[in-house]
Amino acid sequence: MQAVRARIAAAASAAGRDPRAIALLAVSKTFPESAVRAAHAAGQREFGENYLQEALAKIGALSDLALIWHFIGPIQSNKTRAIAEHFDWVHSVARANIAQRLSDARPAGRQALDICLQVNLSGESSKSGVAPDEVRPLAESVRALPRLRLRGLMAIPEPSDDIEQQRRRFRELRLLLVQLNAGGLALDTLSMGMSQDLETAVMEGATIVRVGTAIFGERKRA
């Protein structure tokens, strides 16, 4: 955990940024409750999950801890109610009907559900996400919904060892957010960067980096 925080701090320093402006999201999918408890003991509060049933079991088992839960996986229509009821953030909204269902299902007594729109920067058919030129109408639709708070954008670019290609993709997401804000939105979140490329994501403006392997070790099979 501390090694990852040191990486974030070093990248922020190199970019002239305040490391406190970058949140570390520990991606705990496939790892047991005990791993989350150990990370919490080391000071981590925010955790990301992809698989709903696994996540709900963990959320219940860890209800004695003050944790912030982020859903970061693909969203099926029949899962929206449980996501809206149990999570604090959703990073992977790519369709207006999914956003509507999350809004409808969000309990009235809870604070608004923080939302990021997932953008498919590379156009890969295997990747979830909305095309860049379709982000604005989706953003306008989502921000009009009650019980949701549109915070920003998320992307999972295609893997690359080429630092310049990594930066190019992250820069595309940042510039897209800048364009949305210039058009009247007030977004503050760029969820981008993982274990292997968090430094370049920080250099390009990430405000949340999603890190699993570098915290918990090699991923276990779901």
Helix amount, in percent? Answer: 40-55%
The CATH homologous superfamily is called Alanine racemase
Q: What are the secondary-structure elements, in order, as H or E?
A: HEHEHEHEHEHEHEHEH
**Overall geometry:** globular
Rg from Cα:
17 Å
Structural class: alpha/beta
| Strand arrangement across the biggest beta sheet | 7-6-5-4-3-2-1-8
Biggest pleated sheet: 8 strands, parallel
CATH class: Alpha Beta
Task: Provide a quick synopsis of the model.
This protein is an alpha/beta fold and 222 residues long. The protein has helices spanning 2-15, 33-41, 52-61, 80-86, 96-105, 135-143, 163-182, 198-203, 213-216, and strands at 23-27, 46-49, 68-71, 89-93, 113-119, 148-155, 189-191, 208-211.
Describe the protein in words.
With 222 residues, the chain is of the alpha/beta class. The protein has one domain (2-216): TIM Barrel, CATH 3.20.20.10. The chain has helices at residues 2-15, 33-41, 52-61, 80-86, 96-105, 135-143, 163-182, 198-203, 213-216; strands at residues 23-27, 46-49, 68-71, 89-93, 113-119, 148-155, 189-191, 208-211. An eight-stranded parallel beta sheet has the order 7-6-5-4-3-2-1-8. α6 (135-143) links the parallel β5 and β6. α4 packs across α5 (96-105). The radius of gyration is 17 Å and the shape is globular. The model has no long low-confidence stretch (mean pLDDT 95).
